[in-house]
Amino acid sequence: MQIRRAIGTLTQSFSPLRQSNFRIYLGGQALSLVGTWMQSTAAALVVYTLSGNSPQALGIAGMLASLPVLLLSPWTGALSDRFDRRKLLIATQAVAMILAFALALLTQSGAAQLWHVLAFTFILGISNAVDLPTQQAFLGDLAGMSEVRKAINLNAMILNISRFLGPAIGGFVVAQLGAPTAFWINGLSFVAVLVSLVMVRASQVRAVGGAGRGGIGEAIAFVRGQPRLQDVMAFVVIMTFLGFAVLTVAADVMKGDAQQTGALLSASGLGALISVIFIVPLAQAARRTGLVMASAAIWLGAWTVVFSFMPTLPTMLVAMFLTSLGAPIVMTMAFGLSQLMAPPNMRARIISLITTVSFGMQPFAALLVGFVAQNLGAVIAIRINGGLIVILIGALLLLRPALRTWQAVPAAT
């Protein structure tokens, strides 16, 4: 009976695909995201090479990618609640496409310097500050609030398929054809998502009034009265500030080897993909929401510690695969719950707050991991930041009775 129920839950997790607008948009995303992960892998290797094999430079690049999210997300969330999200996404995807082509030209001509790549990373971070809350809220506009958690999980599924394919393809392309080819392919991949955005239509409930400080203040006031939403934010902070430490210095762990770096990132993507297909739908259906999220955080921390002791590439890949089963449970549930618990005209602002306290804090995490890796080694940085601290915080949160017994319910409209 339980097996049949689990199979039914997994089958129903694909129900948003019955809607044509959602299918079209997700198809465009699928093509674009593979190119995005190819560029991410290539850019990390370019930074590592141009900096003289410095893991600290990788940390600085991570900081520059995330700093705009920290500074701008509260206000971009308010803009996303007020203005047409589809048009905002068209603008952000066009900017990302132009940056990819510009980076391809620079690297192919041999004129690229470290500061060029870092500057482009920062500009792309500004675009992402608008894109992240807008894209997450847009999924709800397309699928409807009754299907929003499933829609977010399907989007996460596409993201993690690209995480599996993109780095492996990117590592191969860089090793065989050079980094410029990866940047060209990524630029072309944005055509698919731009076409899908022109084709689809969505239903959006817009906020009334200003999109500035007052708009985000309303969202902050709402979160203050929602202790479980605060817990959700805490879990996301753990994942992005500490749990992804290994990915920040992946190129250093692999000593700059393009194909091994791609293989490590692909193992992470494969683990996350298996998680969003088979584990996350069951986790979303579980009654004890807080217990599930805390357990997933502890799982990730424990396997990160195991990863740090692995002596060979095959054992590292297995440990990375098992590590990556945990993060999607926390992240996908968090973004779905934030929309489920928020008023309809405040969804993007709530998402932007979660984005700010998670991805926005990643600059400091990237600098910290890069500094520890530079002075103590990448393996020690992974073991401490990504493993032991995550286990400790997850266990402390799990000790709270109110969180252990929490069952998520939608917010009143």
* Binned strand content: under 5%
Average pLDDT score: 82
Tell me the helix content: over 70%
SSE order, as H and E?
HHHHHHHHHHHHHHHHHHH
Rg, nearest Å: 20 Å
Choose one word for the global shape. globular
Largest sheet geometry? none
Give the beta-strand count.
0
Put simply, the count of helices is: 19
> How far apart, in Å, are the first and last alpha carbons?
36 Å
- Flag low-confidence runs: 210-214
- Look at the helices and sheets and give the structural class: mainly alpha
Structure description:
- This protein has 413 residues and is mainly α.
- It has 19 helices and no strands.
- The chain has helices at 2-12, 20-50, 55-82, 85-109, 114-143, 148-177, 179-199, 213-224, 227-243, 245-248, 250-253, 258-285, 289-308, 313-323, 327-341, 347-357, 362-376, 378-398, 401-404.
- Helix 6 crosses helix 15, helix 9 (227-243) runs parallel beside helix 13 and helix 13 runs antiparallel to helix 15.
